[in-house]
């Protein structure tokens, strides 16, 4: 009775597809899907839970869980629940290119290269509009130039400083050392530029036409591309992929753009940022504050409400506490104005939770309050592509927009993780479907990620809060433990600072639906366990795995204490 519980036809149809898929040949009955596996809830229980939650938004989240249930430990979870329509562009045509990719970031390049490898005639348009501070960069998009790569390298620089301090406790006679920001930036930028060159060379090798120019649609099959000299070229294509990503959002306050920088600028600063205010408590803000502080400078975080919104809040506060203990100052409030002083410093007016205001002086103000999709100036209206009016992002089905021959991947896609590997995988699989006869769809569930704060945080699947929202508190269990890496014992740091948590679904044989770890090398740990979760791992599977001793990852093979037991999860010894 979909009308009674408030489900629309689209939600009901999606749920029906998920349920029916469990009875298809090669699925449930033959290979241990939800109808045959006693650990999986039967369809009647899934439907009953869907009625119970009485929310189309929750049903969508529930459907993600069900898609992981159907098929047990097979790859069934990766099968599409929605299909693109025929775009009519598979045959001969008179356009300039088979495929034109707009955006030369990780996802766009992955799509272009895979299409070219399959015989398509491909072009890529990429042009970087300078940041408000005037920063520009080369081919490769955010990740390579002003994101993941330089961020991880500067995070590593910070960890090395910590390692030098630890080395003294291990018997090394290490003299007092200083850090050269300029030398670090030179090394980082040399690596970035070598990667830019590698991408250019690869495009040439594959016969992909590269336009270092800004593309704007003039009709559904045509764009005008404008280079840095203002030269305009008209280019047509049978198919398009929009992969333009996003750029940092700036606060709408006096001096909010003129006297601040963003992550677009930080990694190429010619001089150290000095005392820095990081506006926002996003992962970008906390990562930047973390390595700035780790490199010996003062770093404050101006936080409007909660840290790492969208992440598990227990884990987020574990990160925040660790950063505070290591010298990062968290300030509650929002910026109201940024003023440039005569000596080049910035005076920031801050409004606190009660409405009171204070002023503080900083060398650098870095804003990291979110990112906006770069879709407003590329003529999508001329192409007929619909966007979400609030976010500017594009609704897709199997990466296909409402215009069948125009596709979108990466951070411009509504409701998908804004992560480089997601864009790469989606672009690769899209190209293989369009030009190599593949039917494999992108699976956006259980995507692993890591926040590279001083205490790294790795996560797969649902937060504890989201699991409770979807399934109800009585239907989940949390296994957890605080721990201290062996390497930290000699320098006497971080007693019970690290934390491991598994969120399991009691209705599904304690299948793991949330994996969380705070500790060193969290990214490396999380990547390995991501495979297990893709395969449908249960708590029993983890318990049956013999750990590698002594490692931090082994913690997940010996978790015994549950939150519901009320026992302390702190520990001593190995």
Q: Outline of this structure?
A:
The chain is α/β, with parallel strands linked by helices and 574 residues long.
Name the beta content range.
15-25%
Sheet with most strands: 7 strands, mixed
Low-confidence stretches: 1-7, 17-61, 63-81
Count of beta strands = 21
Description:
The protein is α/β, with parallel strands linked by helices and 574 residues long. It has 17 helices and 21 strands. Strands 1, 2, 3, 4, 5, 6 and 16 form a 7-stranded mixed sheet that branches. A 5-stranded antiparallel sheet has the order 17-18-21-20-19, sandwiched between helices. A 4-stranded parallel sheet has the order 10-9-8-14, with helices on one face. Strand 4 and strand 5 form a beta hairpin. The longest helix has 25 residues, at 181-205. Residues 1-7, 17-61 and 63-81 have low confidence and may be disordered.
Defining key terms:
17 helices; 574 residues; seven-stranded mixed sheet; 32% helix; alpha/beta; five-stranded antiparallel sheet
Helix and strand layout, with pairings?
Elements: H1 2-5, H2 9-21, H3 28-31, H4 43-53, H5 56-69, E1 97-102, H6 106-117, E2 122-125, H7 141-146, H8 148-169, H9 181-205, E3 209-211, E4 213-219, E5 222-227, E6 232-242, E7 246-248, H10 263-266, E8 276-279, H11 283-294, E9 299-303, H12 313-325, E10 329-332, E11 334-340, E12 346-351, E13 357-362, E14 364-367, E15 371-373, H13 380-383, E16 406-408, H14 420-435, E17 449-451, E18 457-461, H15 464-471, E19 476-483, E20 498-505, E21 511-518, H16 522-534, H17 539-543
Parallel strand pairs: 1-2, 1-6, 2-3, 6-16, 8-9, 8-14, 9-10
Antiparallel strand pairs: 4-5, 5-6, 7-15, 11-12, 12-13, 17-18, 18-21, 19-20, 20-21
